[in-house]
Amino acid sequence: MCGISGLVGPNPITDRHLRALGVVDRRLCHRGPDDAGWWSAGPVALGHRRLAIVDLSDSGRQPFRSADGSVVVVFNGEIYNHEELRRRHRLTVAGRCDGAILPELWQRLGTGMFAELRGMFAIAVVDTTVDSVTLARDPFGIKPLYYTGTPDGTMMFASEPRPLVGVLAAPELDRAALRRYLAYGGLSRDQSPFAGVHSVPANGWVRWDGATRRTGGTVRDDLFDDLPRTSPAELRDAFLTSVSGHLLSDVPVALLLSSGLDSASIAWAASTLGARLTCVTVDIDGTMGEGAGAREIARSFGHRHEILSGLPDDDLADHFFASMQRPSIDGLNTFLVSRAIAGLGMKVALSGVGGDEVLAGYPHFRALRYLPLLRIAGAARLPGALVAGGGSNRRRKLGHLLRGTAGWDAAGLAEVVRRVRFDDEIDALLPDPGRETGRAAGRETVGPPGPSGPSTAVALSVNEIEGYLGGTLLPDCDAYSMGCSVEIRVPFVDVPFARAALGADPRRGIGKRGFAAATGDATLKRIAETRKRGFNLPMDRWMRDGPLAPVVRRAGQPDAPVTGVLRAENVAAVLDGWRTGGVAWPRAWSVACLDSWLRSLRSSLRTGRPQVVDHHVTTDAAV
């Protein structure tokens, strides 16, 4: 795991370019405090920050180069099947590091190599034989990669978007991204919060020849197509294979253990494979209630267990918002457990993130069976008062579901369930509302419902994988874990296993009970029968009189940065409504969170407030 950066220009790079890249590289040092590497030639330069996990020797240092020196690679992530690829393609590269195979594999396969990599990755490949730079991300977008252009035609890229903002003339927020954040509490999977800074698409690659952007391509075309009809034994084996790969490490591996099925399943798999882990449960001020159950799970599978407790310290908010790359109302729990892992002196932790999406574990998967009834009720125009009449957010969501605002199908269900705000509330906050149209801007369709799409569990899982998992959970995992110099690995978010799980019961979903039954383990079956519990923080209490109270108070100040992008009077109304109990905490937190993120950004860049602009990405323009 590490941080990568680089640039490619139309002309040979200058000292000014290298100084700019050096600033970007230094702002990534938290991603790789163990080592740093550089390479430059002609119009291209690459930088790397290393978090040494696999092959701690010098042979694991980056950039990696082919034997003839014509291909140079920097890489962020883990390739779990690198030994298999060495054998299959008879690679001759020395050393044990997983990323060391990439230059030679590129020479054999070109962009076709990306589809053969099993793991999480963001990769930059310089091929001097054709004067190209290619950037790519793994199929689920676990690892991020961003790029931007400078006035002289140079393209710069980095593992995080915030360092790239410093090379722009002035930081500007993308208006569509802001609207989506207000709607859902996070951005879409391939969205950047900044105008002029773009994300390499998940499951995609993009190539530059000099300063001209060429059309890119897809890493895997079969990600959710032609799913196998998986038996319980095949599903069990697929999960054990995934966990086995994710255990690849030359340093100790931890497990983020709750009392729920997802993390317990990883504990079972590791034990079955003969691995002994340090299981870590974070029990904040005794309110989580996960400690006793997690201790019993760790004991039953023969793992060591650590319970870390205590209130967050005074620097919690500053470190949290400095780590936040994209505004998100989620992720504080991920930050806390990552900081706990770092406090133990560990670098790697396994997590059950992705289990709910892949195994159809969220409660709203059970609502799929009621969609036909919603269509009937909607056709009878029953929900009009619910939609138009205000009330609680839950009531408004029900009204929109009945009305079919986003469609009476899996996609519409996912969109409405994930809403934090609807259009009228967003319009009240934005200074100049109504300039965006369509779902891409975070707005639901408000006309008559169109034809419904698929309503299967697979369809809902794909929406959750691409939406909530890809847009919130995975970006948060990367930002907050790497902000603590920790690598979080997610065995459920593995292409072969996810395809096996989705194919086990495409119509209804395998479910947590079905998955536990497939493992054949009595402990997991018992856990699957209990009520689902998550690692939920006491957010409302912390915002009122705990460690997050100063964050909320700052957002209410007359000169708060958030009032530069949202209407000050309505910001105040949201915060006042929450204080009096009329507004749920997520809406108030989204305003306060955005304010502190802007403060952190302004502090790190030493510039004025970012402005909000419309941003349109073209696919064939010069960068």
Automatic annotation (TrEMBL):
Keyword Amino-acid biosynthesis: yes
Reaction(s) catalysed (UniProt annotation): L-aspartate + L-glutamine + ATP + H2O = L-asparagine + L-glutamate + AMP + diphosphate + H(+)
A GO term, aspect molecular function: asparagine synthase (glutamine-hydrolyzing) activity
PROSITE patterns, alphabetized: GATASE_TYPE_2
Record InterPro entries: Asn_synth_AEB, Asn_synthase, ASN_synthetase/amidase, AsnB_N, GATase_2_dom, Ntn_hydrolases_N, Rossmann-like_a/b/a_fold
Annotated EC: 6.3.5.4
Domain of life: Bacteria
Record key words, sorted: Amino-acid biosynthesis, Asparagine biosynthesis, ATP-binding, Glutamine amidotransferase, Ligase, Nucleotide-binding
Region described as Disordered: spans on this chain: 432-454
One Pfam match: GATase_6
Glutamine amidotransferase type-2 domain location: 2-193
Basic and acidic residues bias (residue ranges): 433-442
Family annotation (SUPFAM superfamilies): Adenine nucleotide alpha hydrolases-like, N-terminal nucleophile aminohydrolases (Ntn hydrolases)
Pathway: Amino-acid biosynthesis; L-asparagine biosynthesis; L-asparagine from L-aspartate (L-Gln route): step 1/1
Top-tier EC class: ligase
PANTHER family hit by this protein: ASPARAGINE SYNTHETASE, ASPARAGINE SYNTHETASE (GLUTAMINE-HYDROLYZING)
Family in the record: Belongs to the asparagine synthetase family.
UniProt protein name: asparagine synthase (glutamine-hydrolyzing)
Protein's organism: Micromonospora zhanjiangensis
